[in-house]
Design a protein that fits this description.
This protein has 122 residues and is of the alpha+beta class. The protein is 54% helix and 15% strand. Helix 1 crosses helix 4 and helix 3 packs across helix 4.
């Protein structure tokens, strides 16, 4: 496993959850819904504090967990990069790929824990 996946696992272990909304809450990261079309999520900084914006379109959908985890990945992996869209295309693709890898670990862990909970295994 790579550094991105390990960071996702470390956060899940630290906060005893893989739910990105709970992790953001524990880290003091605000999440707000906004009229976003494409992309479905974004991260902005206000006074050096990250705010994750999610599209209203995904508010009631499971997709919101992946998008939130992806944006959380940017905060954790690329903290302080506020002028994201000024970065060259190659770096931007790399950062998106890293955030996706981070989000996949969160998503898989969250889905697995949700399934285990529903099956009353624990």
């Amino acid at each position: 496993m790579g550094i991105y996946e390990n960071k996702a696992i470390a956060l899940a272990e630290k906060y005893q959850t893989a739910n990105p909304f709970c992790i953001c809450n524990n880290m003091g990261i605000k999440i707000e819904y906004a009229n976003l079309d494409n992309p479905l999520g974004d991260t902005i900084y206000l006074n050096k504090s990250p705010i994750i914006l999610l599209s209203n379109k995904i508010q009631g959908k499971h997709e919101k967990y992946f998008v939130c985890a992806h944006e959380l990945g940017h905060v954790v992996l690329h903290n302080g990069i506020q002028n994201y869209y000024l970065i060259n295309r190659t770096t931007k693709r790399k950062m998106e790929s890293e955030a996706d890898r981070f989000a996949m670990v969160c998503w898989k862990s969250f889905q697995l824990k949700s399934l285990v909970f529903r099956m009353n295994i624990f």
